[in-house]
Amino acid sequence: MSLGKGTSNTQSSGGERFSSFGFIMAAIGSSVGLGNMWKFPYITGQYGGAAFFLIFIVCLLLIGMPVLLAELSIGRSGRGSASSSFTKVGGGPIWARLGILQVITPFLILSFYVVIAGWTLYYAFAAFSGQLFKQTDFSGQFGSFITGYGALGFQLVALAITGWVVARGISQGIEKFNKILIPGLIILLVILMIRAVTLPGAAEGVAFFLQPDFSKLTAQSALVALGHAFFSLSLGMGILITYGAYVDKRQSLGAASLAVGAGDLIYAFVAGLIIFPTTFSFGIAPDSGPSLVFIALPAAFSAMPLGAIFGGLFFVLLAFAALTSAVSILEVPVTYAMDRWGWTRNKAVVITSVLAFLLGVPAAMSLGMVPELTFGGKAFFDWLDFITSNILLPVCGFIITIFVGYFWKNAGEAAGLSAGWFKVWLFMMRYVAPILVLLVLLHSTGIIKF
Ligand code: PHE
Question: What residues are in contact with ligand 1 under a 6 Å CB criterion?
């Protein structure tokens, strides 16, 4: 099946399309995920506060948004999957084969991402019902939750919601879902930010986040910022290529890239303004990862007036962020299966979700329930995360920059840029982005150290 055949010039009207607003919401929904909430504030604090934030902005502008535009352009011109779009826009079969990596990577990410999405759902219920705040050993509670069967149940619920949305299709499913959840998410962000910055002692947290410390800026921090810009814009996961296939040809891709980049940046900024004032106000270390979100923050909420409500809203926010990202990542293998094997959408959703669950269960169990699922000192869950985030994402990003920079003849036309902007973009894709992405890969795999 073709998703509306031909290149952008000979595009047929067949196939589903996003509305303009719906597409921006869906793309922002994909980028706004767990990454910016539990990793970004922490690395910002660690690598120099506002100084690091500035580098992150530069990375978003110089590398992130150009690669985002590249992915969208490939998708919209090819109107195929994250693999077949490469050949449909004129690349040889080798590119479609390399593109399969951009289908496998999101599938692997999906399998463990819904584990955490499930936790956010459980914590939202547990916070609102008051269950979460009945005792103050949050670390113990978290440990017993993730090693129990309940966690697998919530993982299944998260995957079922994701599958249900994707099964309903682009406009009735993904677009509608994001059009409701993203405005909801914005309201929650504002409420929680106001609460956080008005806590006693909040100023200290804001200062930690926003005071520039240029002495902490090193080559390493720049690479961390770039790696994070990549992850937080959902690049190298086939997502924007896949979403691009459903974008109307009148949509300006340059404007869309700007909107998504700006959305991601604002979300990251507000996340920092929630996390740091809250943790500082209650004297809790702003660690990154699960311990921040599921242990440190509940402790802070429990000490706050009306904490059950604010805590509940916070986990609803996280669940929204996680589910809108999960939906985008499931769409990649689903579109691939429809495009490659002619499966119906429903069949593709069911089979992909079942497989993702089968892989996700051992991942979830490796976090304590079945300690044998640890290899070389890393739990199976962490292996999946490491291989996808640190190896496959930069590799996929590199493939895209090389394809667009050196092999794609119609890139300018497909991206719809003016001659001047096209030159800038091509320069980035040829010389700047591939080198920096390669450096991120070598650094995140530990091959080079600073
Ligand atoms: N930008 C997303 C995030 O920060 C990345 C992502 C997208 C991860 C889709 C998983 C699924 O979480």
Answer: 30-31, 33-36, 109, 113, 231-232, 234, 325-326, 328-329
Three-state SS at 130: coil
pLDDT bracket for residue 8 (50, 70, 90): very low
Measure CA 54 to chain center: 20
**What is the per-residue pLDDT for 42?**
81
Task: Render 172-219 in DSSP notation, one character per residue.
Answer: IIIIHHHHHHHHHHHHHHHHHHHHHHTSTTHHHHHHHHHS--GGG--H
pLDDT of residue 146 exceeding 50, the answer is: yes
Atom of ligand 1 nearest to the CA of 233: 1
Distance from C-alpha of 381 to C-alpha of 275, rounded to nearest angstrom? 25
Torsion sign (Cα): 363, 365, 368, 370 = negative
Write out the H or E segment, with its range, that includes residue 73: helix 65-78
**Cβ neighbour number for residue 401 with a 10 Å cutoff:** 24
Q: Which atom of ligand 1 is nearest to the CA of 113?
A: 10
pLDDT at residue 3, as a whole number: 55
CA 113 and chain centroid, separation: 10
Q: What are phi and psi of 248, to 5 degrees?
A: -65, 145
**Ligand 1 center from residue 23 Cα (angstroms):** 17
Q: Which of 21-25, 207-211, 401-405 has the lowest mean pLDDT?
A: 207-211
